[in-house]
Structure formats: C-alpha cells, structure tokens
Amino acid sequence: METIRGRRSLEIDWIGWKKRLKNYDHILLDLGTGDGRYARTLAAKHPGWFVIGVDACRENLCEHSQAKLRNLLFVIASAQDLPCELEGLVSQVTINFPWSSLLESLLSGDPKLVCGLKSVSRARAGLELRLNGGALAEAGKTLEAGTDRIYYNLLRAGWQIEHPVVLDSGTLKRYPAHGQSVWPLDAIRAQ
Questions:
Q1: Which residue would you say has higher pLDDT here, 107 or 7?
Q2: Can you tell me whether residue 21 is helix, strand or coil?
Q3: From CA 82, how far away is CA 177, in angstroms rounded?
Q4: How many domains does the chain have?
Q5: Which of 85, 153, 158, 161 is the most exposed place for a label (fewest CB within 10 A)?
C-alpha cells in the first residue's frame, strides 16, 4: 500500500500496517481527502482514533501529510480501487465535498466504488457524506437531483442512511478544518 509523508512516497508492508493499527478500535477513512486538512484535524482532535486519508492526487497531500501524528496516515489510491490492506477495518467513512471521478462514481452508483466501500467497512460502519452544489452543477445535476441520485445509489448498495438535510452557512463555517471558510454554502449531509 502506497503512503505519503511530505513529498516522500512510502510503501507500508502488512506487518508494519498491523503494528500501526494495533491499539485503535475506531478507524476513520476520509475518502477523497483532498489536501488532508480534515483528516489531520480529526486525528489531532481524537488521539484515540486512527485516521486514514485517501486520495489519488499525491501533490495535494504534501503539506498535511507531514503532521507528526501517530494516528494519521495518508494513502495514495483511487476511491474506485481501495487497497486490500483496508479490508474490513474501517468503522467510519467520511466523504466531504467530492468532485471529479469520486462524485461521478457516487452519482452513477459505480460498483467499484460501492463494493470497495463495503469491503473496507466493518459491520455497522458509519458513512457521512457532504455534497457541494457547485460540484454537482458542474456534473450536470442540481443539488437536489444529485443528492437524490446518490442517496438512492447508497440505499441500493445496502447502506442504511438517514434522509439528507441541507447544512446552513453557520454550520459550514464551524466545519472542522482549522477555520477554513471556503466551503460551499449549499451542502447536504447523509449518514
């Protein structure tokens, strides 16, 4: 499994991987982690959790992957081809404001994505999804239509999720990303 720290790409073997996870019951996977800010924030805030940020774009991860947090790891992989080392480990998945191929896979119900999510998740794993109206518009969907499509695809894949709700601007401004205020004002969250 390819990981990254700063600009260095590192392979982690099975024994090293098991040692890293040994003392953690709660393992959170932040899929499409972008620059990794959200994963880093969660790892710092919850030292008893192991947080894994996954993204296919290594260049975005250089800054936040340098954090010296024992409970944080960044993995280079696509959402549609998650590493087998994650199989059955994850107790919570977050997907925050997906775009590009991750958003397209959610909209289409891509079997590689939904099967991959199921394979890495433990029984009763949680899924949190926040959508961006601007990214959905670029994909040719309204916020409502895109949300409905993704909601249906996740239900069809076997996820038991709550009905999506619109997040107001105040909630988004408090979003845990070190005070970053560039999140879109029209987002939807599903669990």
A1: 107
A2: helix
A3: 25
A4: 1
A5: 158
- List the structure tokens of 64: 């936040």
* Residues 20-35: tens digit of each pLDDT: 898 999 999 999 998 8
- Helices 143-156 and 100-108 pack at an angle, to 10 degrees, of 60
What CATH number is associated with residue 162?
Answer: 3.40.50.150
- Contact between 143 and 136 (Cβ < 8 Å): yes
φ, ψ of residue 52 to 5 degrees: the values are -120, 120
Structure tokens at 84: 């087998």
Taking the C-alpha atoms of residue 34 and residue 56, their distance in angstroms, rounded to an integer, is 9
| Alpha-carbon gap, residue 5 to 61, rounded angstroms | 8
How many helices, marked H, and strands, marked E, lie in the chain?
7, 9
> What is the C-alpha to C-alpha distance for residues 132 and 186, in angstroms, rounded to an integer?
6
Q: Which two tokens stand for residue 60?
A: 């975005």
Separation of alpha carbons 66 and 164, rounded Å: 34
Q: How far separated are the first and last CA of the chain, in Å rounded?
A: 28
The number of angstroms, rounded, from the C-alpha of 156 to the middle of its chain's C-alpha atoms is: 20
Q: Which two tokens stand for residue 50?
A: 């192991």
Domain encompassing residue 101: 2-190
Q: Which tokens sit at 52? A: 């894994």
| Number of other residues whose CB lies within 10 A of the CB of residue 19 | 11
pLDDT tens digits for range 96-134: 889 899 999 999 999 999 999 999 999 888 888 888 888
